[in-house]
Amino acid sequence: MWDLISNSVYAGLFLSIAIGIIGSLIVINKATSITGSIAHGSFGGIGLGIYLGINILLSTTIFTLILALILSIITIFYKHRADSLIGVIWALGMSVGIIFLSLSPEYNADAISYLFGNILLIEKNDLLIMGIVDIVLIISIIFLYHRFLAMSYDIEFLEIRGINAKLLYTYFLILTSLTIVMSVRAIGIILILALFTIPPLIAEKFTKRFYQMIVLSGILSALFVTGGIALSYYFDLAPTPIIVIIAATGLFLSIWKR
Q1: pLDDT of 133-151, one tens digit each?
Q2: Which of 78, 198, 204, 253 is deepest in the core (most CB within 10 A)?
Q3: How many angstroms separate the CA atoms of 66 and 58, rounded?
Q4: Is 198 within 8 Å of 192 (Cβ atoms)?
């Protein structure tokens, strides 16, 4: 039982690092709908992996990376129809997943677990993947911090400096996809968007610099996840909804206080 709890706590800390970095970038770039499209669209990769009998993590990673590239093209070259096309990708990915699941010979409980997630079922292999993705995120934000800022607030500055803003934005979506893949088993597709946006939204209200927003949203994420794990274990409830409810309560309190 201790291994079960300890793994979930470690997973919560790894998730908090990812949420602090990618979640903050999602919020300041107003990329919530794109993130939701990638997250829900990733179900296509899950269904494909189950149908083909291959590693679900591998199929989901490849599928979400393809979605990220498609969404990058849409948001860069089809801005006037981006909202509608993002919604289409969202629905298309889910539909592909449902079709492949319906074609599978047997019912597979993994599909349900990926939809709703359960951080208490995280294994050591999952922690390893989370750690690797976190390292990539930390290295990326250290070396590309000012470029990400310019991309978010003053993209013309990047163009003046001769930096390929389109390529940088695509890389941001790729990082988002990898973060989603590492999170779906713990958080679940349905609730991943809420947990990736609520802590940064709160942190944005109490910070003036972007790096402060990253740090505070990471700390808030750790508190929300740890609190949710404790309450779910004590009351024998599903952890992810509890975590989201705690985070949403914190958001409403921050809005009311301000």
Answers
A1: 999 999 999 999 999 999 9
A2: 198
A3: 13
A4: no
Query: In sequence order, what DSSP letters do the residues of 30-56 get, joined into one string?
Result: T-HHHHHHHHHHTHHHHHHHHHHTS-H
Q: What is the Cβ-side half-sphere exposure of residue 148, based on CA atoms within 13 angstroms?
A: 25
Backbone angles phi, psi at 100, to 5 degrees: -65, -35
- Single out the residue of 102, 138, 170 nearest to residue 21, CA to CA: 138
Domain that holds residue 109: 2-257
Residue 196 CB contacts under 8 Å (≥ 6 apart), including other chains: 19, 22, 23, 26, 35, 179, 183
Sequence-ordered alpha helix ranges (H) in 78-164: 82-103, 109-116, 124-153, 155-160
Q: Residue type for 172, please?
A: F
The count of other CB atoms within 10 Å of the CB of residue 88 is: 12
Confidence at 154, pLDDT banded by 50, 70, 90: confident
Number of structural domains (the chain) is: 1
Give per-residue pLDDT as tens, 16-43: 999 999 999 999 999 999 999 999 999 9
> Residue 231 maps to which CATH number?
1.10.3470.10
Give the whole-angstrom CA distance, residue 72 versus residue 49.
24
pLDDT of 1 over the 60 cut = no
Q: For residue 62, what are its two tokens?
A: 């490849």
Which tokens in the block code for residue 145? 């911090």
- Asked if 209 and 11 touch (Cβ cutoff 8 Å), the reply is no
Query: Hey, what amino acid is at 116?
Result: F
Of 54, 36, 37, the closest CA to residue 192 belongs to 36
Residues 173, 39, 208, 216, CA torsion sign: negative
> What value does the mean pLDDT take over residues 222-230?
93
- Residues 16 and 224 sit within 8 Å (Cβ to Cβ): no
